[in-house]
Task: structure prediction
Amino acid sequence: MNKTLLAIPILAIALLSSCKKNESESASEENGGVDFATMAVPDKFSYATSETQPLSAEVLLLGKTPYAGAQFEVYLEDPTASLDDPAVLDSIQMVSSFTLNNNGQYNSEIKVPTYVEKIYLLSKSLGIPEVFEIDRTSAGFKLQYSADAAVAKNRTLSGVKLSNKVMSTTGGGASTSAVARTWNSVGYPNYLIDPYYVSGMFVRRFQTAVPYKTKVNPALLNTSIPRNIVLDLKPGQTADISISFMFATSTYRNTLGYYWYDSNNPPASPAAIVNKGYVFPSTSRSAVSSYSGLVAGQTVKLQGPNADGSFNPGTTVGFFIIANGFIPSTDINTPGTIRTARTTYYSDKRFNAAGTSGNMNGITERMVVLYDQTTNKIVWAIEDGTDADYSDVAFFASWTPNEAIPTGNYPKLPDVPRTDKDYVFFPGKNLKGTLLYEDCWPRLGDFDMNDLVINHNYTGYLDETGKVTDISFSFDLKALSAQLNNSFGVMVPGVSPNNVQVVNSYNLDNVNSNTDKSRTYAIESGHTNDVVVKVFTAASTIMGGNVVNNTGDGAITRPVEKFSFTVRFKTPISVADFNKISPFIITNDRRNVETHLPNRRPTIKANAGRFGTEDDGSSTTGNKFYLSNGTRAAANLTWAVEVPSEIPYTKSGRSMTRAFLKFSDWVTSGGVNSTNWYTGATGNRAGSLLVYP
Result:
């Protein structure tokens, strides 16, 4: 037997009969929670489990250079531990991605669960830290990163001191004439010179030629490409060479060094290299503990054989990397050490053993080299492992005089046409939320919120201005427990239907994921200020019963029914418009009877004459919609709930306040307490009253 409001008269029970469900289970299971009819709900409480927050970012490289074009992904969990595991990274809730404008800035908004107090920005562009943890403030979420500030912090960080003594190399390697250089406990050099101010476009040109986590273009491994610097100087001339850090993505604390020799008398083996020195004692991705603190553009002048550090005519300069060669010191006053006995890779491929596994099997080249005509820089990129993306460490050279290094034989860095693909998701990439409906409006029902259960996802495609050009909608008709044959629609309020270019049955990946591939969708006619799509008609007919994937008399089990389509706009809409998407049910397929989420206005086709009747307390003048009036039960009760994750739903006839034990605390506090009431956290659920997906 279906439970109804305990405190209402017999007449009210009769009025509820049209939306009762048959239920044979004992109501004695309901021994927790509270009676929904007695809740004291604050006026106009919206039952919102998600909220929009401002999101802004500004990223400045050294010299306050805007990082134009830098790309970020926004996560609700820390992605640091998953950076090298795409499958795990895909399982973390990602809510949007964005690209900085020419000023290195971004300003928009994101929609996140109300309990979220911090977000994580994962940089998809190199040369800056990979992950930023951003706390929510009264102004929303804001990233302000300045490489200059990061450098200043590295130099003055309390307790971290630079060495005053020359460090000797350690390990079992051959003796060398390593140039004396000093650094601190994590390998931050104290011999940096004025930086080279790297532009975002420079980094992006490199990423276009050598994409991170993508096997390198085999043409860049061509043996005719020079890997060393061969100075072309006139007698009596000398050259100065400086090396600038670009980025590191490796978990190794690699040591970057250089060596030089007479071009007419090259060493036959690494052991024969006499002249060498260190450039950067430790390079690694920023997420590695004891990160050295290097940022893009920090520069070291190479020390050659002359008193002023310059190099003579007839000199070849090469580079090496000691794989995971640096060991940080546990004492912040003691410099870290370099292990010369570790595997070392050279720009002279004849010194390298061929790889034996992965994409590096049989390959001796460990460095690719390119020339950037725009900046007149030569860029080296190193592979320290087996994936062959040659993005583990990258650095570039500057030199004087300009003619000292011929550049004609180096491949050129390409121009960068904008090909960014940014998105906004709700509730997240590859994740679905849950819509729970009662179909009795304007009468109150049993508050089990399972007359229609739908999982949903919205994905918006952003153009270069951060506007939404396309929205891909995905709905899974999961379960129902209703006597009425309800339909379902979705609205983008405040957007003219004349602004829609096309509606198709494919998602943004051009995949038709509908259960019935022949389904087509269209903008519903008759609307002037809203984009409305009727997603499906008659859920019970589609699912083959009135109680589907739930419990009770006549219940059946069957797969979910999938509905998916994309709306493309003629003129892009704002992210704020995307965040206002409003799903609703059409009761018993009577087109003028709509039930929306609390305080979401109906479409123009809804019969406004029903507002304020029976148990409904809606007021168009008070901008209050789909909340009860308190005449026969608690005021401000709802007929619909949306949560930003896929959750279990109540068994037929079981109240939300009984099945979700902290739901009433959340509601009566006006959304202040128990904001994660729907999650699987301990004490949130009465499992015996729920159907699990």
Q: What stands out?
A: The chain has a mean pLDDT of 91.
